[in-house]
Amino acid sequence: MAVKVGNSWVSEAALSYAKVKADSGESATLNGLLDRYPGVNFSTNTQAFSQKGTNNIQITPIILAQMQNNPDKRIEYEALIYDCAKLISSGAMDWRFPCESGRNDHQCGWQCERLGDHGRR
């Protein structure tokens, strides 16, 4: 069942996991996320988004800073990442879809924007 945390809807399992990770003191850095979610390629928007595939999550440095400094944001974003990682590992993201107007540039995916908006690219 979906639950609302902050401005986002996530699974109950994701919220439970995020609360445990927030309380554990584990790092909310890019390297910490890479360790917790093997099989997901994380990058920041300071890097060119040129990866192919459906296992990529791009996060702005502002979001990473919020995760480190704001416990509520940490739980919200960690839960969103958890749900995305579960979709990736389940194979549910392996289908192809056309981006804008049939554009096929292999950059379709999810991106956490500057203000925390979660949008499809």
Explain this structure:
By secondary structure, the chain is α/β, with parallel strands linked by helices. Helices cover 40% and strands 18% of the residues. It has helices spanning 12-24, 30-36, 61-69, 71-90, and strands at residues 2-5, 8-11, 41-44, 56-59, 110-112, 118-120. Strands 3-4-5-6 form a four-stranded mixed β-sheet. A two-stranded antiparallel sheet has the order 1-2. A hairpin with a 2-residue loop joins strand 1 and strand 2 (8-11). Helix 1 crosses helix 4 (71-90). It is globular. It starts with a strand and ends with a strand. 26% of the residues are buried.
Tally of contiguous helical segments:
4
In which order are the strands of the major sheet placed?
A: 3-4-5-6
How does the overall form come out from the CA principal axes?
globular
Helix percentage: 40-55%
- What share of residues are in beta strands? 15-25%
Q: Rounded to an integer, what's the Rg over CA atoms?
A: 14 Å
- The total strand number stands at 6
End-to-end Cα distance: 26 Å
Sheet of most strands: 4 strands, mixed
Order of helices and strands: EEHHEEHHEE
**Poorly predicted runs:** 97-116
Structural class: alpha/beta
Q: What is the averaged pLDDT score? A: 77
Summary tags:
121 residues, globular, 6 strands, four-stranded mixed sheet, single chain, two-stranded antiparallel sheet, alpha/beta
